[in-house]
Write a structure and sequence with these properties.
Cofactor: pyridoxal 5'-phosphate
CATH topology of the largest domain: Aspartate Aminotransferase, domain 2
CATH class of the largest domain: Alpha Beta
Keywords: Lyase, Pyridoxal phosphate, Transferase
Strand content: 15-25%
Oligomer: single chain
CATH superfamily of the largest domain: Type I PLP-dependent aspartate aminotransferase-like (Major domain)
Protein name: cysteine desulfurase
Catalytic activity: (sulfur carrier)-H + L-cysteine = (sulfur carrier)-SH + L-alanine
EC number: 2.8.1.7
Strand order of the largest sheet: 4-10-9-8-7-5-6
Largest sheet: 7 strands, mixed
Number of domains: 2
CATH architecture of the largest domain: 3-Layer(aba) Sandwich
Helix content: 25-40%
Length: 427
């Protein structure tokens, strides 16, 4: 597969943000009279023209279904699709492409993990998650436990938004009854980077499988699935400059070979008779029907793009932007940051509350000046309940975010708070 050209990095690996932003036409937009300040990348990232061009080229010149069609276009589409699988495998340092299962998104990948692992759960078995999970890594396990009679348990958090390992150890949270531990790598609310390798060691000591939600981790930091310690890892393309409609479940091949199918249909089968069917080996066992072919091509192009920048450089820039957000919000007395306030084992999502201003109102007022953030519970309602807040605002940058955009965020929050304070006082 051809690499995607990108004009981004200087020799010392410092990020040339201006050059990067030139690849993203959306940053030329204005919202009314205001320049767009996009600080919602934890929700979805923007897409460079190289990714859009790769998808367009596939549809315009190579479009066909994969595996089934034996003509030239079918062979080209199959090569592109399987090439994308190999590209993903190399990006996360998997043992090979057979460990890469394509899905629509992280949610489907995590549902695949829950339902296939759940096939062997029984009453008395336990599944351990955390209170900081996105609903996609919470609800599927609730459903599986309800269906099988297994018990759902969870890690609590400390006052500063870290995983409470001491409490978990004291309570024997992971024990001989634990069959699955499912944990986010990086919280989409608190930004907390969880000690996956440490939890993996504990889980594996009891023979449990560790499932990791890498939706916020893989786009932000170098990923080596072996070093991480996971058995299954889910992530999604749209948060790492790829298109929507494509996600990934990586799994150790020996584990994938033990798991039953998730969905039935074409291409996931080996032999089909009216009396019963046998199933293809991984990864195709888990990929029923026509797959997101062009989206996989787009994901491979996105990986080429961010790899050309360098994941180390992306992580360093993300940390710089996050530190600047935290520092700026720290100057506003009305703002309370949720989670760690220092960039130590911390990702790029910064959630906060503003005294006297509902997050939805703040989101709309910031948008009136071109600043895009998210307001709500960020698909993590139980975590907000644990924190004692109904919802929060969230700002999140990426490698294309500038320090000046962060300054605009801070000054606009200050203006919005003043606006609501004057409004509530009747002035």
């Amino acid at each position: 597969m051809n690499s995607v050209p990108v004009s981004t990095v200087v020799a010392d690996r410092d990020l040339d943000v201006a050059a990067v932003r030139a690849d993203f036409p959306i940053f030329e937009r204005r919202v009314g009279q205001w320049p767009l300040v996009y600080l919602d990348s934890s929700n979805t990232s923007q897409k460079p023209r190289q990714v859009v061009d790769a998808i367009s080229d596939h549809y315009l010149h190579h479009n066909a279904n994969v595996a089934r069609a034996m003509h030239t276009l079918g062979a080209e589409a199959t090569a592109a699709f399987e090439g994308a699988r190999a590209r993903v495998a190399s990006f996360i340092k998997a043992a090979g492409p057979d460990e890469i299962v394509f899905a629509k998104n992280s949610s489907e990948a995590l549902n695949l993990a829950a339902n296939t692992l759940g096939a062997s759960l029984r009453p008395g078995d336990e599944v351990v998650i955390s209170v900081m999970e996105h609903h996609s890594n919470l609800v599927p396990w609730q459903l599986v436990c309800e269906r099988t009679g297994a018990t759902l348990r969870w890690f609590d958090i400390t006052a500063d938004g870290r995983l409470d390992l001491d409490k978990a150890d004291a309570e024997g949270l992971i024990n001989e009854h634990t069959k699955v531990v499912a944990l986010t790598w990086v919280s989409n609310v608190l930004g907390t980077v969880n000690p996956i390798a440490q939890v993996a060691e504990r889980a594996h000591a009891f023979g449990a499988v560790l499932v990791v939600d890498g939706s916020q981790g893989v786009p932000q930091r170098p990923t080596d699935v072996t070093a991480l310690g996971a058995d299954l890892l889910a992530f999604t393309g749209h948060k790492m400059c790829g298109p929507t409609g494509i996600g990934v479940l990586w799994g150790r091949l020996d584990l994938l070979e033990q798991l039953p199918p998730f969905l039935g249909g074409g291409e996931m089968i080996e032999v089909v008779r009216m009396e019963g069917s046998t199933f293809a080996p991984p990864p195709h066992r888990f990929e029923a029907g026509t797959q997101p072919i062009a989206q996989a091509v787009g994901l491979a192009a996105a990986i080429d793009y961010i790899d050309a920048i360098g994941m180390e450089a992306i992580q360093e820039h993300e940390e710089q932007i996050t530190a600047h957000i935290l520092e700026g919000l720290g100057t506003l007395d009305a703002v309370t940051v949720l989670g760690p306030t220092e960039v130590v084992d911390r990702g790029g999502a910064v959630s906060f509350t503003v005294d006297g201003v509902h997050p939805h109102d703040l989101m709309q007022l910031l948008d009136s000046r071109g600043v895009a953030v998210r307001g709500g519970h960020h698909c993590a309602a139980p975590l907000h309940q644990r924190l004692g807040v109904q919802s929060s605002s969230r700002a999140s940058g990426y490698f294309y975010t500038t320090l000046e955009e962060v300054d605009t965020l801070v000054s606009t929050i200050e203006w919005a708070h003043d606006f609501f304070t004057r409004k509530s006082a009747g002035r």
